[in-house]
What we know:
- By secondary structure, the chain is mostly helical.
- It has a domain at 190-253.
- Helix content is 73%, strand content 0%.
- Helix 16 (325-337) packs antiparallel against helix 17.
- It is globular and about 65 Å long.
Amino acid sequence: MKTKWNAWVWTVTATALLAAAAEPAPSEALRKQALALNAITGEDAEIGKILELIEDPPHTKPLLAEAAKLAKEKEQPFNVNATRILAQTAQLLRETDASVTFYKLFIDQADQLRSTDKIGLGYSGLIKTLYDGGKYDESDAACQRFLAIKGDAALQQMKPAVIRLRVLVLAKQSKGEKASELLEKLIKAQPDNPKNLTTKAEMLHVLDKPAEAVTAYEEAIDLYKKDEDLSKEEQEDYVNSIRYALSGLHIDLNQVDKAAADLKSLLEKDPDNPGYNNDLGYIWADHDMNLVESEKLIRKAIDDDKKQRQKANPEQKPDAVKDNPSYLDSLGWVLFKQKKFKEARQPLEDAVKQLDAQSIEIYDHLAEVLNALGDKDAAVATWKKGLELPADTKREKDKKAEVEKKVKGHS
Length: 411
């Protein structure tokens, strides 16, 4: 499965929560843990706590639910630091409703503190959370509320970033003309800002115009390379990020060789990047190309990803570091393509067990393996499970239509 983010983004594991009989009742214990967040101060400490919390979703999600109840009380008990930790943790775990609750509280607290930076952070988080949760009308309303704030010079400087966010929200609402008009005004005001062109590319991708999106990204690369305010290293980081996005667009355009070239270029600079290795392996496997080499790349991605996450969290037990489900899907798929059906089954079953990585594509791959093994009833049942999942992107919608045909053909 081609990943959307580099491996460092995927940090969520599925370790079980063990509770001794002598501990307080779950809700009381969770409330105490939530209130203890008030004692955490300092940027590094706050980020460290967020990383700790997202590593244990089975424990953290109930904690967020309990904290959200407290946040809605008349005399809510959280200070601004705790609220930020809760908001960003919920956002990373895709607990949309909880994240929205905490971000709204954080914005109120930031307003009382008259902190421009915190107000900007709060609105940015709220807008993105609503966007990622598919609540585009609410996300647009949040954009407009922020843009209506007069504020000081520092706050005014934040508005172009929010305008760019609103452009993407409007695109998701199928308001392409309005999104384009808004962005063109910004580009006219800031003609040398490459971020405006990356937003244009993202907007065009949402509007299903991949060829135009490629052009916009290539123009952004040119601007980044000319940006004298950035160091060479910063320029390269931005260009690499765009190159990675281009690999996905080239696949949308069925330009497999170009997508592979994008990823090969990235791997020359960062050969141990799990995301790059996985994606190149998956792309080749999905198109029945270089299957032996594909398997090597994907296995390297799985191994390197685990090593890197273990190194980043040395206190975590090795058994608690789960394999990335997207990479497991890629492994199962390349084994399927090599007709190693029995071997392909296990990694795919392991992938679908991870609740934070449910994907119709993974279910489709598992169903294909089950069908190849002769278990047609299990295959159809698996396809049907995949159809129960939401399909938001064009890729997911196309896959859903494909799976519906398979179910009909096997019924």
